[in-house]
Design a protein that fits this description.
single chain; alpha/beta; 6-stranded parallel beta sheet; 50% helix; binds zinc ion
């Protein structure tokens, strides 16, 4: 990016970074439960050096890592799995490799091969690999995860056919398996959180584009089952850290629980101490928003999806409406939030015009909707 744009971005970002410093518990261990390396069919890619730099920016020492939807994935994801194992070996203990499986290409043999070669978890992607959880081969993979005591991370985000019921049945047949449902389980958050409430080993990762999904998760499941994650190259650890700290504060999590969410729970799991005991969900049934910030949130939350589909004019129109909602001679109690968000959104607007500025613009818009959604502490 051009130096002028770098300065624009840095200035708008500064208040958000200051808040991270204020909210982050001292010397907290941050572990990103969901990262990728390599190349995806959609054109996205991430190198080892890039991922480590992104983790450093969030103060995260460790991360779980697995392949993308790699064009070289046939047969059985063998080539991308071996690459990830190789990169993890180069990373001096910072990366915990998971193997990615294709349920139609001998997943049990591939998971056994990878676990023997040093993998310490399994990744399943029901959208990319186009499957539902109806037993068969996956029963044996879940059985292996139980006996080898390794977690299975499952994509549970956008774009899935209804798979919750099959997944619930499979999980309940394997009560000793530890599952990490990715992206706040938004594909079916209601069914999954309700029907898996008594399963002892279900975690939810917070790599979500909309903060309300994560805030609601805190009303549905114990905080001790919610883990920090950012899904690079699609998300950024530093941005996700801001969301995690804001929603922890909004939900009145104590310092120990905040530490568990940021990395403590994953550390216990990965280091073989088992999962911590649970307590009741921390948040109440409602999410209270300032009326002024709710208007900002509504418009700003439409900017990212428009950008992802290439509708730049629509994105800018929504950004302009969000900016208009920030201009308020009577800001009530949210003047500082409106100022910070207004400055971030106008920097995002300028960055959208600049070459190579889209990523920075999205980051600022995302932080703005997180700030707007979490401004009023939970009232429960
Ligand atoms: Zn992912």
């Amino acid at each position: 990016m051009h130096a002028v744009n770098d300065t624009l971005y840095a200035n708008a970002l500064a208040p958000f970074l200051a808040e991270v410093e204020r909210l982050r518990p001292p010397d907290v261990e941050v572990i990103d439960a969901h990262t990728h390396l390599g190349l995806d069919e959609d054109g996205r890619s991430l190198t080892l050096a890039q991922l480590l730099e992104q983790l450093d920016a969030a103060g995260a020492r460790r991360a779980c890592v697995f392949p993308l939807h790699d064009p070289d994935r046939h047969p059985a994801y063998r080539v991308p799995n071996d690459r990830v194992l190789g990169w993890a070996a180069e990373a001096e203990g910072r990366l915990v490799p998971f193997c990615r499986l294709d349920p139609t290409e001998d997943p049990l043999a591939e998971s056994e091969r990878c676990l023997a070669a040093g993998a310490r978890g399994i990744k399943l992607h029901p959208r990319a690999q186009d499957f539902v959880f109806d037993g068969g081969e996956l029963d044996s993979v879940f059985g292996l995860a139980e006996s080898a005591q390794v977690p299975i991370l499952i994509h549970a985000g956008r774009g899935l056919p209804p798979l919750a019921e099959g997944l619930v049945d499979l999980a309940l047949r394997h009560p000793r398996a530890v599952l990490i449902l990715a992206h706040g389980a938004i594909c079916d958050q209601g069914i999954l959180t309700s029907r898996l409430a008594d399963h002892p080993g279900v975690l939810y990762d917070i790599s979500c584009f909309f903060p309300l999904d994560v805030m609601e998760l805190l009303a549905r499941v114990p905080a001790e089952r919610i883990v920090f994650a950012s899904d690079p190259p699609y998300g950024l650890p530093a941005t996700s850290l801001y969301m995690a700290l804001r929603m922890a504060a909004q939900a009145h999590l104590d310092e120990q629980t905040t530490r568990a969410v940021l990395g403590g729970t994953m550390a216990a799991l990965l280091d073989g101490q088992g999962l911590p005991p649970v307590s009741a969900p921390r948040r109440g049934d409602s999410i209270e928003l300032s009326g002024r910030l709710a208007r900002v949130y509504g418009y700003a939350s439409l900017v990212g999806p428009a950008l992802f589909t290439g509708a730049l004019d629509q994105a800018r129109a929504m950004l302009d409406m969000a900016l208009a909602a920030c201009r308020d001679p009577e800001p009530g109690t949210v003047g500082e939030a409106l100022d910070t968000i207004g400055a971030a959104l106008s920097a995002a607007d300028a960055l959208l015009e600049a070459e190579g500025g889209v990523r920075a613009a999205i980051d600022l818009v995302y932080r703005s909707i997180v700030r707007a959604a979490t401004e009023i502490p939970d009232t429960a």
